[in-house]
Amino acid sequence: MIGILKSMATTMKHALDGSTFTVEYPETAPDVSPRFRGVHKFSQERCIWCRQCENVCPNDTIQIVTNDQRQGEQYNLHIGQCIYCRLCEEVCPVDAILLTENFEFTADTKHDFVYNKEQLKAVPWYKDIDPLASREPDRGAWVGEGEGEVDYQ
Amino acid sequence: MSGATVAGGIDAMQALPAVPLQDTVLLPERIGELTGLDGFGLGGELLATFLAAFIVGNLMLAMTGVAGPWAKRKITAAFTDRIAVNRLGPAGLFIIIADSVRLLSKELVIPENADRPAYDLAPIVVASSALLGFAVIPMGSGIHLADPEVGLAYVFAVSGIASLGLVMAGYASANKYSMLGGLRAVAQNIAYEIPLVITGMSVVIFAGTLQMGEIVSAQAEPLVTIAGVSIPSWYALVNPFAFVLFLVANFAEVGRNPFDTPEAPTEIVAGYQTEYSSVYFVLIYLGEFLHIFLGGAIIATIFLGGPAGPGPAALGIVWFIIKIWGVFFATQWLRSAVPRVRIDQLIEIGWKGLLVLSFANLILTAVIVGVVT
Amino acid sequence: MSTGLERGQQPPVDVTEDELAALIGDRALARDDHLNAPGFVIRPDDVQDVLTDLRDEAGFDHLANLTAQEYADRYESIYHLRKYADPTQEVSVVVPTTTDEPVSQTAEPVFRTADWHEREAFDLVGIDYEGHPDPRRILLPETWQGHPLSRGYDQEKPQLVTLTEHANPVQPDHHDDESDTMFLNIGPHHPATHGVLHIETVLDGETVVDVDPDIGYLHRCEEQMCQQGTYRHQIMPYPDRWDYVSAGLLNEWAYARTAEDLADIEVPEYAQVIRTMGAELCRIAAHMLALATFALDVYGDFTAIFQYGMRDREVVQDILEDLTGQRLMFNYFRLGGVAWDLPEPREEFFEKTRDFLDGLPAKVDEYNDLLTGNEIFQIRCHDTGILEPEVAKQYGCTGPVARGSGIDYDLRRDDPYGYYDNLEWDVVTEDGCDNYSRVLVRMQEVEESAKIIEQCVDLLEDWPEDERTVQSNVPRTLKPDADTEIYRSVEAAKGELGIYMRSDGTDKPGRFKIRSPCFHNLSALPEMSEGEYVPDLIASLGSLDIVLGEVDR
After folding, report:
1. Which end of chain C, N or C, is less packed with Cβ atoms under 10 Å?
2. Tens of pLDDT along C118-139?
3. Number of Cβ pairs closer than 8 Å across A and C?
4. What is the value of pTM for the model shown?
5. What Å distances lie between residue C227 and C118, C244, C248, CA to CA?
6. Is the pLDDT of residue B304 over 80?
7. With a cut of 0.90, is the ipTM above it?
8. φ, ψ of residue C134 in degrees (nearest 5)
9. Which domains are present in chain A?
10. Residue of chain A with shortest Cα separation from B330
11. CB distance from A28 to chain B under 8 Å?
């Protein structure tokens, strides 16, 4: 009986202290840590169409179409299929593909989640956080080193 | 219907309080007077009674409407450190409208093998059995539909009809989970109805009557007076043991935690209500809340002095509703903190624990009352 | 069960390789050593014989894993045995069969856990186990044509029974007029199955007479996906998705440990400390969820404990998000280290972690008030879901489930990896063997994990700045020598999470097999719940803390 009363006292204590741990989204947007991986942003100006991101992607999320001079024509990314592992960002030698902190995206059908390069470019920064700046100290620390051929080429 | 007082068994009953808490005029009669319907003989009387029942029924339904979609969410949220509904209207109250529209506009899915008349009747039986009970509850401020001499027996009898509804729902749904839920419901109701009634009997021994109005009046007599503040002889104070017993048996009777085994969502999905959707679901859901409120009303009437409380007698209904909501709040509180007992343990507690205790309580009360008077 | 104990002789704890060879004797056709264990090739009809001897004479009482695979010229079943007393003692028993008649003797009479394993091997690879008591498919539907992991399997070939025409597995009703029992499908959609699990139950009144878990609804070909990925990059994101509730780093470590041993990669000490800290944070998050959902199963749908559990787990997830950049699917470990150093500013991270650790004892007290101290909770959980230690060993149970049955088995201590060896902490065991003990074990493990994290934070804070290497120098392309085989495991949130890998000389594994702790723990459910009531079945299922993503893989 004492245990039951103690349980009831515990929940009552929580009811009376008035504090809540849920927030009113979207009025109170949650804090996202600088390393958070959200929707991709693509910069055609930077991209050298080396196709490393396409090759490293574990589940074929990225599709690149080039013409016969190896100039880029299309850069499609299915953000609904992506598993947000950030390998594409890590292998990119020119920071052309980045994962922003932006997690707020919706669509009516899953096909709308196939973003082309213009849509990818238009993805806004989340709260103006540039992930490149926030991840700078460690970016690419692990891809450049080592012997052997690059297995994503 | 007679509103005349029946002579109590205890002499002390003669000393009624100065301010009568109970209106001797019942609601149908008053409505008859006000509208002039009493001049139309039996037909007018019936119409006045119907109007009065309509008012009381709607009052109770409105309360469940507030309790179901809104209060329950708010209370649960408070216990679990969350915010809960707050977008629609002041404090999210308009969620009630949104929810009713949502629930009523849903598709009514009826299982292929459902036993039709029983399947359709069950929600109505569940909801109406609780509503019927309110007919004899004195709610104060003149809201009292009828005051028959067997009021308490009547209210136990009609609320017991709900078990029939639950079994019908469980059996007619052609679903094994519903079946289990229905069987659990009936096993539980039989196990707890008896302690409930027996414990109620101990109150009858005190009051010397089954008439609800009389039971309330008997509780208005001061128990002790400390520094000018007189504490009324509410039976919860006179016999707290019976009060706790009744409270526990009542939680089991209405199937609330820790005795919510007939529903037991994590075990048997939703028990007897698994296959009900849309309007039928609303009816069952309303019925559940009505039963909680009816339980609260019985507790308030026979243990907490009915509509008694400080202030003018006109505030009776307010005090009464506060008491009912207190019981409702207790169900939600238990829900947040107390585990569900297993079905066999539940039956064991009922037959081996509560039944024995309630008989002990009955005998003790009888002895004490016999000695005192 | 006939164990060595019953015969009155204690099997030796230490067995040398020569002694093993002598024990198996002529029955060993050849040696096929794995990286971590001696391997003996035996004839398909000697399986029970050899395994019984290994169990009773040499003390290998834990069938950790069974891997089946098809080579060009043969099928192979590999029984990975180890000891509960000392898991570093391992032996592999390799059973080859011909391709045209892949029939092998079943090991089920020796190890009960072989039951499900051999069903899976039959289902995916196509080996028949002679004498198996229940030779059905386990992950794929009964009507499936072909064995997807066999070499000749044509993925393009349409199935005879399409998904829409497929017989509803929920349909058959085994009720017969003679008996008073009722057949009840619990799941695949049921509030308490924690995912898509289907439990075929036979009830006698409210008493459970027979339980048969039907799994495979969440089979996502995880093993095959890992066989399609490169060792270096593409496999690591997937372990997060096995036990997806929050044990990501623990799972990643299983792959990291196996691949690092396979390719002989060193991990810097600093990275090991970070790994240890991250893994224990994950363990706390996973155990919090286990406790919260168990409360849900026992209390009902509006219990406050579930919310409090989620609230406290949220704090851990915030810390993990700061560290790894994601809340559940971390992809933080890399072969040879971790992806990132601690987030800057480090002081802030340490402070946040310490705040959480400081607040933890108060929260644990609260859980004790709400859960373990509650009398109704006690009558619900005491002496229900009994799992005797000998039975648990037969079913290969590990993790909190085994430790709740008094089996002192924790790979963090017994088969050390990471930085656990250098830290002060204890393995928690309880002897109750019931649902209550399993709850207690998880509660105490949360506290032990907190101790580990605290020590890691202290270490990381004082780590010299110029020695903070998070990654060793790893070749860009890993191509381990062909036909190197390894089975390695770590202590994940639910128990021993092991991976068997065989390299085929390319940059992708030739065979990738996951030993899932949930798979084994779930297989013991019938032992725990038959003869008890439906609510106890649900509570036992909750106390096993299964994640269907890991059961079905």
Report:
1. N
2. 888 888 888 888 888 888 888 8
3. 117
4. 0.85
5. 21, 20, 19
6. yes
7. no
8. -150, 65
9. 32-135 (3.30.70.3270)
10. A8
11. no
